[in-house]
Design a protein that fits this description.
With 187 residues, this protein is of the alpha+beta class. It contains five helices and eight strands. The chain is elongated, with a radius of gyration of 19 Å. Bound molecules: zinc ion (2 copies).
C-alpha cells in the first residue's frame, strides 16, 4: 500500500504531508490527529493501515527536530513538498535569529545589539536567506536555512520560466515587507 499523501524523508527522518505542506507531528497521537482532520478525514481501516505504515518509520521527535535542525551553514537541501520562504538571518554567529519579516529582523538588531551599534555601523547586521520549517502550525514553526535562490531586493532578477515552479514543487514565498534598512545610532 502506498503512503498516499505522505512522503517519508530519510535524510531528516520526517514524514511530509504533501497536501498540507507540513511534516506530521511525530508520535501516534499527532499522526492519528492529522489523518482524522481535514483534508484527510481518514477513518476505520484506512486510518489503521496508514497509522501502521507511519509507525514503521524511524522518526525524530518534535524536540529532536527543534534541537537538531539544520545549521545555517550546513548547505541543507530544500525538503520536497514543504513551503520555501524568503527570510533574514542575524549574522551574529552566537545568535542565528531567523525571521521572514524584515521589520522583525530590524527590531531584533536594534534591541539585541544596541550597545554595539557603533561597531556595527558600517557592517552588515543581517543577510537575506531562504527558509523552511518542518511544521506549518503556528505554534510549531521553527525556521532553518536551506540552499535556495535569495529573492533579489531590486526585483529585477526574477527567476526565468513562465510557470516558476520547480520540479520538487517548492515555490519561494516573498518576504513580508521590503524596505532598505538603516540602523539608527543614538548619540
Ligand atoms: Zn495532511
Ligand atoms: Zn542576533
Amino acid at each position: 500500500m502506498p503512503l498516499g499523501d505522505y512522503d517519508y524523508n530519510e535524510a531528516h527522518r520526517v514524514v511530509v504531508c504533501r497536501r498540507c505542506q507540513s511534516c506530521i507531528v511525530p508520535g501516534s497521537t499527532g499522526q492519528v490527529r492529522h489523518m482524522r482532520a481535514e483534508p484527510h478525514r481518514l477513518q476505520g481501516d484506512a486510518l489503521k493501515a496508514t497509522a501502521a505504515l507511519l509507525a514503521g518509520y524511524d522518526l525524530r521527535s518534535a524536540a529532536e527536530l527543534r534541537r537538531d535542525k539544520p545549521a545555517w551553514d550546513s548547505a541543507c537541501q530544500p525538503i520536497a513538498h514543504l513551503p520555501v520562504y524568503s527570510g533574514f538571518r542575524c549574522i551574529d554567529p552566537s545568535c542565528n535569529h531567523l525571521t521572514r519579516n524584515l521589520k522583525k529582523i530590524r527590531e531584533h538588531i536594534a534591541s539585541a545589539y544596541k550597545k554595539k551599534a557603533i561597531e556595527y555601523r558600517t557592517a552588515r547586521l543581517w543577510e537575506a536567506c531562504t527558509l523552511q520549517s518542518y511544521f506549518s502550525a503556528l505554534n510549531l514553526v521553527d525556521y532553518f536555512i536551506i540552499i535556495g535562490a535569495v529573492a533579489a531586493a531590486s526585483g529585477s532578477n526574477n527567476s526565468s520560466g513562465s510557470s516558476g515552479s520547480s520540479s520538487s514543487g517548492n515555490q519561494v514565498q516573498p518576504v513580508v515587507e521590503e524596505e532598505p534598512f538603516t540602523l539608527t545610532v543614538a548619540e
